[in-house]
Amino acid sequence: MQQRAEARHAHLGAAPSEAQIRMQERGRQQEREQIYGYSMMTPQEVADYQAQMGAARTGQERERLRIEHRRQMQARARAHGESPPK
Fold it and tell me: In whole angstroms, what is the distance from residue 40 CA to residue 42 CA?
């Protein structure tokens, strides 16, 4: 019920509640943990990667995208003299 009430207030243009802000931050934290090399990506790159993954039709296609993305992030880290993300 609390979430519905908060969503209703957000829909009406009210300022976000503390709970909504915490939920948004948790979502961003999960995003950072799930995308390999997130810290080296621009917001546009994150959005593009998410769009590509969302548009992938098969598990094989998603895996191919993950592998290619990992290679790109490793190359970017090497180019900047950093060790690749874990």
Answer: 7
pTM exceeds 0.85 = no
Angle between helices 18-34 and 2-11 (to 10 degrees): 100
Tokens 């915490």 sit on residue: 22
**pLDDT at residue 33, rounded to an integer:** 62
Task: Let me know: does 85 contact 37? Beta carbons within 8 Å.
Answer: yes
Average pLDDT of 70-81? 95
> How far apart, in whole angstroms, are the C-alpha atoms of residue 61 and residue 79?
27
What angle (nearest 5°) sits at the alpha carbon of residue 50, between those of residues 47 and 53?
A: 150
Report pLDDT digits (tens) over 20-41: 877 776 656 655 568 999 999 9
CA–CA gap between residue 41 and residue 54 (Å, rounded) = 18
Angstrom CA distances, 15 to 6, 9, 18, 21, 76, stand at: 10, 8, 9, 10, 39
